[in-house]
Amino acid sequence: MSLDQKLIIYTDGAAIGNPGKGGYGIVMLWGKARKEMSQGFEHTTNNRMELLAVIAALESIKKPDIEIHVYTDSKYVCDAIEKKWIFGWQKIGWKNKKNIDLWKRFMPLYKTHNVKFHWVKGHAGNVENEVCDVLATSAARKGPWLVDYEYTLIEKQSNLL
Questions:
Q1: Domains of the chain as residue ranges with CATH
Q2: Contact 24/49 with Cβ under 8 angstroms?
Q3: Whole-number Å distance between alpha carbons of 83 and 67
Q4: Choosing from 128, 130, 133, 148, which is the catalytic residue?
Q5: How far apart, in whole angstroms, are the C-alpha atoms of residue 46 and residue 54?
Q6: Measured between alpha carbons, how far is 126 from 116 in angstroms, rounded to an integer?
Q7: Which of 144, 126, 129 is nearest to 50 (CA)?
Q8: Does residue 65 have an active-site annotation?
Q9: Catalytic entry in 12, 128, 130, 148
Q10: Is position 36 annotated as part of the catalytic site?
Q11: Catalytic hit among 43, 123, 130, 150
């Protein structure tokens, strides 16, 4: 394999109900190798699944120091990273931000890897993005579902206020 080879990652998240059952889908391409991953969640949101897809993909990488390109149809995720909003959010202690648990989980991964994010329009014929959408929605509909404990805790706390 070439030393300048890039890891290409496509991600998507879905929620049926938002909040509701959710899932993420991932396609990873390394040369001719292809890996698909998905996971369903019992009760979550679309934005959480969009971000968790990126996190799960980055957590699965075993090779250090490779160039990574992430393609997502989530403006929430792409803009937060590429426009450097997350650094401002981090600087103010994540005050009044959603999905803090996931952003905190994301930050060390982002600092560890050489990652560039690209926004792609969803449902516009991008083959790998469409595959991710099918993986994410299938995981949301069919499970098996994990519990998004952090979201469940946050939701319970907000109902107590």
A1: 6-160 (3.30.420.10)
A2: yes
A3: 19
A4: 133
A5: 13
A6: 18
A7: 129
A8: no
A9: 12
A10: no
A11: 123
On whether the CB atoms of residues 36 and 25 are closer than 8 A, the answer is yes
Does the active-site annotation cover 101? no
Q: Is 12 part of the annotated catalytic residue set? A: yes
Is 148 designated active site? no
Q: Which of 22, 25, 40, 50 is the catalytic position?
A: 50
Q: What is the pLDDT along the chain (161 residues), one digit of tens a residue?
A: 455 689 999 999 999 998 999 999 999 999 999 999 999 999 999 999 999 999 999 999 988 889 999 999 999 999 999 999 999 999 999 999 999 999 999 999 999 999 999 999 988 889 999 999 999 999 999 999 999 999 998 888 877 64
By the 10 Å C-beta count (0-12 exposed, 13-18 middle, 19+ buried), 69 is classed as middle
Selecting among 25, 73, 113, 130, the annotated active-site residue is: 73
- pTM more than 0.70: yes
Nearest residue to 137 via CA among 44, 53, 52, 13: 13
Query: Rounded to whole angstroms, how far apart are CA atoms 102 and 97?
Result: 11
Paired sense of beta strands 6-16 and 67-72, if any: parallel
